[in-house]
């Protein structure tokens, strides 16, 4: 920037009366706020509230159809009046942004080190050698192990957490005055999320960078923010310090958001799951051991081939699931938890034989799924249904939702066409939608509504077991609470058994009777929910629980989460034999893998 440096009283960012319209429709109205040097301001709200549009407007990255009025001042200079060439100097040099999905933000055909070095060279931060040295220093700073070797690797060779660290290194390369972080931890596991938040706090202390942190995770907000802005339908409805907003929210919408946040520890003293709508007491009684097991998994092994060499020969295997055993009883919820890559989803898919296991047995209702032929397997799948993480990806965009719900019933011949219409109307009503919605297409529904549609489709065949694979992880906080309440109501009504796959420990505590913790394809701890969460005995379980953000600024942790080593590789040579594993019963029905 040219001219005299701004006074200390001048905010780094000042937004005044901002209004953003798309094709005559207002998406942000009369928005105003400031961000000071060294301050972290969190912008919270649900999907459609205008958070991300506001962030993109600050960098002028909105499409040409957007019309902006008002003022966005960076160090006192209105960036809405700058030319495009001037904005190119602002982007990266004075304002940087970390996007939600690093894989789509990084160029897949260029090495990650080159991409960071390119940002430095564009803003004239030295010659090629100096830029490379600075990029390596940044990689070390964001704790990318073996930075020199990984400098020339491509984005697809990095985990999600490591890719996000590359994005942070790139964003901080030119020491910007303002860093905009748009949902930077939403897709990350809790331990990686905690490390990223620690990293941002530490870098902010060193550089004095102002941070505008956009999220819908109130636990993250409590851990990192100094002030909180709450947006709804494009308007700012509450603005205050983090302590004030969490302790005494004034606006009803803020009160609703905070009431819908699952808090780890809220279920202490409770034995069964509990709906958010219930103020106290168990919604469902504890499943008694004498109840009939509906699913028995024994020594399940699933591996994926690794090709290598000039002829792409089979040189090894990814040991995705390694000798996994557990039981799910009628009317019970067993939560399968762990970080990305631990084998949770593969376990769920192996049970349904959506991927073929290499060994083991899966007995459902007394029948071994792994020995069935195609016709018998199709019949067995009537009683086991799956709810996937991405409801939009699991619904046919060219098919009405009524047809999508009716299709499995017609395919299995369990109802006539007239009965199917009545059943579809009943299921839509049961999941909180209108029977008239049957004629609509998936794109006409919100994310939460689409997830309800997937639940309705899963219930169409009256299953005994539902495998819910990260079924609520992508939902806004209030929608998440509604879907959890719905799942518990349906369990109570139909005596459903759930295999609930998740990495959100606060949600797991809310919905489960028992918990199994997975790490690198193995179950390391399994037992009653109150025991596993209240008295974890395995080091990995303790680390998972310690990393869960607490939605209370007064309990903000100042102790950084140890970065630890990168998990050992699950890829092994063809002749690898997994070592024997023994479990120790540390309490009734509570087992821990012996080290």
Describe the structure.
The chain is an alpha/beta fold and 595 residues long. It has a domain at 13-259: Rossmann fold, CATH 3.40.50.300. Helices cover 32% and strands 25% of the residues. It has 20 helices and 23 strands. The strands form 4 sheets. Strands 16-17-18-13-19-20-23-22 form an 8-stranded mixed beta sheet, with helices on both faces. A hairpin with a 2-residue loop joins β1 (13-22) and β2 (25-35). The longest helix is centred in the middle third of the chain and has 18 residues, at 190-207. Residues 1-7 have low confidence and may be disordered. Keywords: ATP-binding, Cell inner membrane, Cell membrane, Hydrolase, Membrane, Nucleotide-binding, Repeat, Translocase, Transport. InterPro entries: AAA+_ATPase (IPR003593), ABC_transp_ATP-bind (IPR050319), ABC_transporter-like_ATP-bd (IPR003439), ABC_transporter-like_CS (IPR017871), Oligopep_ABC_C (IPR013563), P-loop_NTPase (IPR027417). One of its GO terms (biological process) is peptide transport.
Features:
disordered N terminus, alpha/beta, 23 strands, 595 residues, 20 helices, 32% helix
Structural class: alpha/beta
Strand order of the largest sheet: 16-17-18-13-19-20-23-22
- Which stretches are poorly predicted, pLDDT < 50 over at least 5 residues? 1-7
Share in helix: 25-40%
The major beta sheet can be summarized as: 8 strands, mixed
Second CATH tier, the architecture of the domain at 13-259: 3-Layer(aba) Sandwich
Q: Count every beta strand, where a strand is a DSSP E run of 2 or more residues.
A: 23
Could you tell me the strand content as a percent range?
A: 25-35%
CATH top level of the domain at 13-259 is Alpha Beta
State the fourth-level CATH superfamily of the domain at 13-259. Answer: P-loop containing nucleotide triphosphate hydrolases
| Number of helical segments with 4 or more residues | 20
Mean pLDDT: 86
CATH-derived topology of the domain at 13-259: Rossmann fold
Query: Radius of gyration over alpha carbons?
Result: 26 Å
Q: What is the global morphology?
A: globular
How far apart the termini lie comes to 58 Å
């Amino acid at each position: 920037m040219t001219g005299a440096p701004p006074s200390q009283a001048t905010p780094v960012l000042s937004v005044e009366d901002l209004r953003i319209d798309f094709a005559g429709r207002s998406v942000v109205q009369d928005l105003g706020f400031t961000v000071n040097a060294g301050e972290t301001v969190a912008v919270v709200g649900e999907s459609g509230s205008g958070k991300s549009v506001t962030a993109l407007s600050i960098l002028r990255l909105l499409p040409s159809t957007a019309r902006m009025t008002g003022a966005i001042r960076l160090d006192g200079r209105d960036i809405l009046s700058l030319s495009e060439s001037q904005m190119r100097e602002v982007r990266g040099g004075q304002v940087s942004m970390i996007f939600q999905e690093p894989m789509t933000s990084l160029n897949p055909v260029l090495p990650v080190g080159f991409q960071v070095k390119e940002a430095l060279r564009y803003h004239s931060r030295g010659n090629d050698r100096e830029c490379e040295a600075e990029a390596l220093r940044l990689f070390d700073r964001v704790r990318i192990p073996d930075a020199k070797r990984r400098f020339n690797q491509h984005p697809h060779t990095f985990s999600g957490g490591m890719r996000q660290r590359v994005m942070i290194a790139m964003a901080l390369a030119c020491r910007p005055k303002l860093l905009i972080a748009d949902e930077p931890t939403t897709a990350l596991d809790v331990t990686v999320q905690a490390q990223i938040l620690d990293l941002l706090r530490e870098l902010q202390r060193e550089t004095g960078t102002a941070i505008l942190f956009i999220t819908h995770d109130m636990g993250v907000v409590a851990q990192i923010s100094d002030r909180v802005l709450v947006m709804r339908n494009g308007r700012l409805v509450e603005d205050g310090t983090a302590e004030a907003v969490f302790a005494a929210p004034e606006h009803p919408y803020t009160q609703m958001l905070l009431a819908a946040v699952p808090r780890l520890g809220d279920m202490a003293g409770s034995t069964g799951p509990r709906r958010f709508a219930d103020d106290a007491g168990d919604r469902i009684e504890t499943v008694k051991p004498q109840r009939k097991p509906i699913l028995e998994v024994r020594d399940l092994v699933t591996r994926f081939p690794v090709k290598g060499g000039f002829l792409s020969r089979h040189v090894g295997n990814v040991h995705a699931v390694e000798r996994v055993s557990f039981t799910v009883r009628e009317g019970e919820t067993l939560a399968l938890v762990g970080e990305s890559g631990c084998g949770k989803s593969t376990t769920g898919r192996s049970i349904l034989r959506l991927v073929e296991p290499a060994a083991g047995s899966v007995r459902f209702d007394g029948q071994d799924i792994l020995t069935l032929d195609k016709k018998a397997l199709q019949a067995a799948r009537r009683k086991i249904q799956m709810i996937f993480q991405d409801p939009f990806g699991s619904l046919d965009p060219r098919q009405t939702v009524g047809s999508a719900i009716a299709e499995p019933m017609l395919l299995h011949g369990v109802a006539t066409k007239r009965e199917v219409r009545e059943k579809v109307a009943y299921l839509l009503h049961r999941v909180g939608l209108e029977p008239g919605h049957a004629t609509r297409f998936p794109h006409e529904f919100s994310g939460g509504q689409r997830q309800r549609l997937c639940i309705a489709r899963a219930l169409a065949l009256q299953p005994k077991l539902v495998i819910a694979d990260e079924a609520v992880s992508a939902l806004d906080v209030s929608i998440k609470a509604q879907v959890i309440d719905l799942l518990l109501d349906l369990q109570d009504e139909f005596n459903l058994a759930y295999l609930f796959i998740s990495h959100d420990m606060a949600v797991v505590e809310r919905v489960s009777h028992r918990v199994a913790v997975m790490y690198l394809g193995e179950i390391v701890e399994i037992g009653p929910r109150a025991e596993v969460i209240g008295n974890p005995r395995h080091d990995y379980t303790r680390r998972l629980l310690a990393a869960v953000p607490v939605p209370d600024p007064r309990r903000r942790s100042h102790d950084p989460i140890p970065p630890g080593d990168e998990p050992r590789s699950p890829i092994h040579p063809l002749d690898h034999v997994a070592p024997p594993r023994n479990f120790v019963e540390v309490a009734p029905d509570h087992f821990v893998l012996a080290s």
